[in-house]
């Protein structure tokens, strides 16, 4: 086998199954539904995610794993939510401090 053939084989061996998302406007959605934007779900026992100034973050996207096909290694239940800081021009990105991580909230139900 040629070097390029081996490289192609090595590259293809890293291929993983994916879940592709597409979004349509369906009006008002239930609180626990996967969606982009809108209101997120935070249990009463958790504090709502806020920026450094204490302002509430906005839901970017929420995934309800019960709505997805089973795919290893993803969980089969629970919520994964991504929040961003719309009060900030860079939506919370900090190019001077790469150690700051974007708020991600993972909730197992």
**Percentage of β-strand residues:** 15-25%
**How many angstroms separate the termini?**
50 Å
Helix content: under 10%
Structural class of the secondary elements? mainly beta
Overall outline: extended
Low-confidence stretches are none
The side-by-side strand order for the widest beta sheet comes to: 1-2-3-4
Order of helices and strands: HEEEE
How many beta strands in the DSSP annotation? 4
Mean pLDDT: 82
The number of helical segments is 1
Largest sheet: 4 strands, antiparallel
The gyration radius over C-alpha positions equals 18 Å
In short:
The protein has one helix and four strands.
Protein model, in words:
By secondary structure, the chain is mostly beta strands. The radius of gyration is 18 Å and the shape is extended. The chain contains one helix and four strands; from the N terminus they run αββββ. It is 9% helix and 17% strand. The model has no long low-confidence stretch (mean pLDDT 82). The chain has a four-stranded antiparallel beta sheet, with no helix packed on it.
Characteristic terms for this protein:
single chain, 109 residues, mainly beta, four-stranded antiparallel β-sheet, 1 helix, 9% helix
Task: Give the topology.
Elements: H1 3-12, E1 35-36, E2 58-64, E3 79-84, E4 104-107
Antiparallel strand pairs: 1-2, 2-3, 3-4
